[in-house]
Amino acid sequence: MRAHPRSLFPALAVAVSALVAAGANPAAASGSMGASAVHPGPVAPATQAARVAAPVTPKVTPRVTTFAIPDTAAGAATPAPGSSAARSRRVVAQTQHTGLSFDVAGVTFTGRAPADLEVQVRTRQQSTWTGWMDLQVDPEDGPDTGSPEGQRSRAGTEAVTAAGSDGIEVRVLTGAATPAGLRLAVVDAGTSPGDVAGAGADPAVQPGAAPGAAPGIASAPAATTPGATATTATTATTASTTASTTASVSQPAIITRAQWGADESLMPCQPEHLAGFKAAVVHHTVNANSYTSAQAASLMRGIFAFHTQSRGWCDIGYNFLVDRFGRIYEGRKGSISGFTLGAQSGGFNHDTLGVSVIGDFTSVPFPSAVRAAVARVVAWQADRSAFDPSSSVTLTSAGSTRYASGVRVTKPRVMGHRDLSLTDCPGNAAYPQIPGIRSTAGSEWRAGQYVGRANRYTPVTARRIVDTRTGLGASRAKLAAGGSVTIRPSGMPADVSAVTVNVTTTGATRLTSVGVGPAGVTPRSASVLNTGPGRTTAAAVTVGVGAGGAITLRNSAGAVDLVVDLAGYYSTASASGLVGSFRRVLDTRSGTGAPVGQVQPARPLTITVPGLPVGTRAVNLNLTATRTQAPGHVTAYAGGSARPSTSNLNLVVGQDVANLATVPVGPGGTVTIFSTAPTDVVADVTGIFVAGTGSRFTPVSPRRVLDSRYGWGAPYGPLVAGRTLTASLDGLPASASGLALSLSATGATRPTSLTVYASGTSRPGISNVNVVPGQAISGLVVSGVRSSSLSVSSASGSVSVIGDLMGYYGA
Q1: Taking burial as the number of CB atoms within 10 A of a residue's CB, which of 234, 377, 489, 556 is the most buried?
Q2: Same domain for 399 and 385?
Q3: Span of the secretion signal (predicted)?
Q4: CA atoms of 579 and 614, how far apart (whole Å)
């Protein structure tokens, strides 16, 4: 911990929440993690994924045939009949091929496209030619310029989908020089028994057919985690070790890559993974509205092959695709289980999800089944990424045809491709339908959100409610990888909305993270604690409750013992609200609040917290132990009361350790600090709970709102000492004046401390989380916010910062 001078700080604009009681009192052995255990992003664990109950289609390798497009004679041709190009444009290259069998086609070239370049195509099926169609030259789609994927890609057009065609003609028009390396690529996607299973009457017109269903491909109910069963709420003495699979926004039925027959060997590189999305962009693929349900999978394979083999992209460009019957397909690999960077909206790929409808909707609108499917997949992805599809967002362009690099634009969270680039996509007839899709997705998202009641706080004498080492409140066994324990603390009122607990882990067999959330709510990847072998680690958390006042704790890897101590709860009858208050009240190194000298075993230190108003029931203390002489633990409790058998800090020799504790106050505003080993203790008040006044706490389903490793909620890259990371926290209501955030630090280059505070205010002289190289450390932070914005600073070196929102404070 960085030493700070004693000072008083102005009241926070109401922020707070915390916890008391920490870990299992086991003496903590000093140790370090060899790598970060912080969960990589807001991805639900292997999961409640609803997929269509279709057989896996055998891998089908499409055949890509490439033809050079020769120049016309000296470029002397006249403008093409029906061309929308200016009269100065001429047909400079043209080719025709018949006797083929193909499903998808497109044109590529090298170098930059002339500003007036136009590519037209017509296809033949059973000796009948279509009319000429303009193919969008594609700087709008594709990887971001300058990205590794963008640097290896080849310029070209969008793919034209024309299942079962046997002829194609292409002409290229420009008033400038002919682009170099013009090539026509045609893709025969092949067939498989899985495609034939969908043959027959199209579900769009089949009597009684459910939207999105097709013969041979039935929708399946949401799948459950293997081995998981629903459980009833339990008391603190009998805990379940199985997880509920109730969804927030259920995943819709999705035809997976394996089911549409993706040949993964076609991928020349692996797409980048993100922490989440901020918005969704709707596209169309153009052409071929006449394809049958049996041909849809072959179109997926054809687009995949064109994007990877001809354009040089890592994968199919879109995260998801929807056929004209309303069936949803997994696009980019990993889009179901995680968040994958697409190549679908150049300049904005890092922030947006791409959903494309297979077909041309220039003159015909999306069918109702398509609109419903797009809204469902957007609502589900918005839930996983913690944004409201009905709201707006400010994005920064990395360079698109509409917005130059660095330009900040505010857009609806669900938009058409033309809102970000100079393109007609998703078609003139479909674009007016985007507001309706946005509204439907927003309604579905809101219906699935967990938001608890806003209530005030009641502190209790800290007590242990779970200890897997002894079998208290749970089975006497380490919690296995992917395992969970659901607990309902006894003695809670029926209308409890949230609890404050301190979670301690010990005996971990490998690097792991632990998440805590309301029971019965689908978990996201938020974590409140990171640990590893040889470490005993504690972190406070304030979390909403599920049915019966229950919460669920989950372990991500290896096996680990869990200890949980209860500090208090929020309910309708609770009378104490949070009041902003920020000041250092104890530093045994300097004599602040007590004589100079370390807290010694068997010699508890009682301090008086100055300036507490009448009616103060509890204080939020950010406790830091430093210059520790031996392993042990620290417990904070009300002055004049018996010491509880709980702990708040687990001591590590040679390392500063911090944690937030919500401590009841004794007579005269006193708090007692007990330590089992000699250590210096620093205590900072970050808020107080006062009867009859103060802010209420609204719990939400824990969700990731900040991750500097992925540029999520803040600029991409580690936080460097001397600079300030400003986080824009999506999803906070405008009325929120404070929040409870589980803050994690990882990848530190030097021992450092993080300080969190409301943007636009002075940086307080405390540390919230202390971290050393080779470890991932988490801790609860209660901070004020201004305009949903938060600032974080680091004392030294550089470090990555991750934040998971547990709830917010307001009137």
Answers
A1: 377
A2: yes
A3: 1-29
A4: 13
Q: How far is CA 435 from CA 182, 360, 461, 623, in A?
A: 39, 19, 52, 49
Whether residues 435 and 498 share a domain: the answer is no
Per-residue pLDDT reduced to its tens digit, 463-508: 999 999 999 999 999 999 999 999 999 999 999 999 999 999 999 9
Which residues, other chains included, contact 127 with Cβ-Cβ below 8 Å and sequence gap of 6+? none
In this prediction, residue 472 carries a pLDDT of 96
Q: How far apart are the first and last CA of the chain?
A: 34
pLDDT digits (tens, 9 = 90+) for 372-416: 999 999 999 999 888 889 988 889 999 898 999 999 999 999 999
439 and 588 share a domain?
no
The Cα 583–Cα 682 span in angstroms is: 11
* Residue 253 · residue 51 · CB < 8 Å: yes
Total residue length of the chain:
811
Residue 394, classified by CB atoms within 10 Å of its CB into exposed (0-12), middle (13-18) or buried (19+), is: exposed
* The pLDDT of residue 787: 82
Query: In three state form, how does the secondary structure of 593-654 look?
Result: CCCCCCEECCECEEEECCCCCCCEEEEEEEEEEECCCCCEEEEEEECCCCCCCCECEEECCC
Which of 52-56, 443-447, 537-541, 583-587 has the lowest average pLDDT? Answer: 52-56
Same domain, 144 and 33: no
* Domain extent for 356: 53-219+265-449
**One domain for residues 283 and 402:** yes
Q: Is residue 230 part of a domain?
A: no
Q: Which of 297, 345, 303, 305 is nearest to 325 (CA)?
A: 297
- Distance CA(622)–CA(682), nearest Å, equals 8
Average pLDDT over residues 651-660: 94
- pTM reported for the whole predicted model: 0.76
| Shared-domain flag, residues 22 and 115 | no
- For residue 774, give Cα distances in angstroms to 3, 31, 144, 602, 657: 22, 10, 33, 33, 15
The rounded distance, in Å, linking the Cα atoms of 192 and 258 is 12
Element of type H or E holding 440: helix 434-447
205 burial via Cβ count (<10 Å: 0-12, 13-18, 19+): exposed
Confirm if 122 and 166 have CB atoms less than 8 A apart: no
